[in-house]
Amino acid sequence: MNKKKKGLSKGLKIGLGCCGGSVVLLVVLVVIALKGVQTALKPTPTPSTTQNTTITPTTTPAPKYIYDIPALIGKNIDEIRAILGEPVDKELTEPTQEQISLGAKEWDNTFKKDDFDLLVTFNISSRKIVDFFVDTSSKYPDKNKLMEVTNTKENANNYTIESVKELKNSSNITGIKIIPK
């Protein structure tokens, strides 16, 4: 006996399967479109002219100093080079053997940061810092400004500050020296 299968024909099944897939795709597209419309219709907040709003910065403001001299006090020239980088003196970073034999006891290195020079004088044999020198410029014309960019203060416990006066006019300064105690 031949049993005849009952149910949907193969063509009808394929047709319904395609329609079902199309319906799912259509529903997904409608949901995406509605979300886009909701976003577009959402009002954007505008600052009120009558409201006094205080905005608190989320980051700490950058320090005003260029060189943190107090952090360098107590370090030798090699440690300072590791912190500040290679001096701009290049081959003159160290004295030659001839200069040492002629009696050189101290040497200096110049460091440059933000177009600002820092001259560091050190004892050749001990490598200890003798002083730091920063000169005046149109950007930093006086002692107070120089102290600000070097993060130094009068009457510190571990260094002293001396004004370096002009030779021709002693009422003007050419810079300041910061001398470790």
What does this structure look like?
The chain has a 5-stranded antiparallel sheet with strand order 1-2-3-5-4, with helices on one face. The chain has 5 helices and 5 strands. The longest helix has 32 residues, at 10-41. It is globular. Strand 2 (116-123) and strand 3 (129-135) form a beta hairpin. It is an alpha+beta fold and 181 residues long.
Quick overview of this protein structure:
The protein has 181 residues and is of the alpha+beta class. Helices cover 31% and strands 21% of the residues.
Provide keyphrases for this structure.
5-stranded antiparallel beta sheet, 181 residues, 5 helices, 21% strand, alpha+beta, 31% helix
N-to-C terminal Cα separation, in Å?
116 Å
Return residue spans where pLDDT drops below 50 for at least 5 consecutive residues.
Answer: none
Strand content: 15-25%
- Order of strands side by side in the largest beta sheet? 1-2-3-5-4
Radius of gyration: 37 Å
Average pLDDT, all residues: 81
Largest sheet descriptor? 5 strands, antiparallel
Helix content: 25-40%
Q: What is the helix/strand order?
A: HHHHEEEHEE
Number of strands: 5
Count the helices. How many?
Answer: 5
Shape: globular
- Helix and strand content put the structural class at alpha+beta
Task: Give the SSE layout.
Elements: H1 10-41, H2 69-72, H3 77-84, H4 97-101, E1 106-113, E2 116-123, E3 129-135, H5 143-149, E4 159-165, E5 173-180
Antiparallel strand pairs: 1-2, 2-3, 3-5, 4-5
